[in-house]
Task: structure prediction
Amino acid sequence: MKKYVLVLGILLFAVVDVSFAENITPIVQVTPNATETPVDNKTTPNTNNTNKGFYLGLGTGIDLPGNNWDPTYYVGSATSLFFGYGFDNNWGVLLDLEQDLFAGNGTNLYNFRGLIDLKYAFSVVGWQPYLLTGLGLVAQSLSPVTNNTTNFDALFGAGVQFDLAPQTHLYVETKCNFILSQTTSFMDVPITAGIWVGF
Result:
């Protein structure tokens, strides 16, 4: 009888032990994936809008006389200084200041222009062709003969700018300036090259 009780006790202990073992939830250790790349939420800066913001430019070149020009004047010199603002990568506006000098027949003719120009640059990577149109005033003076006049001035132009660095450009452009006097109009064509820098 004692043997039967002992065997029954062993069987009961085994059943209880198996049932307890089945109810235990195993602990699984999660190891990080070594090949997983961390997510970087930082965005790459956009460097395409290199024309946006304020900029300052300086250029020099020649000025070709056009129609109704005094035949005693040949090729003149041109120097330009401009302050601009780019609204985006295409559209901009600038204050264009230009000094032209013509020499001939013992006299010098000085043209000082101040115009407000509208600029449109085409979106091309590395270089951008652009168009100009503007309106302003031109003051002309003769030396040594004293003769000063001031007239309206309108221009149409085109050029191309090359990216040297972010917001730093080399440019070459030509403009047709129409001097509108009270009696007639005449034209000159400055061709200049220079550099402009944004800030």
The first strand starts at residue 53 and ends at 65. Residues 1-8, 11-22, 39-47 have pLDDT under 50 and may be disordered. Residues 2-22 form the longest helix (21 residues). Helices lie at 2-22.
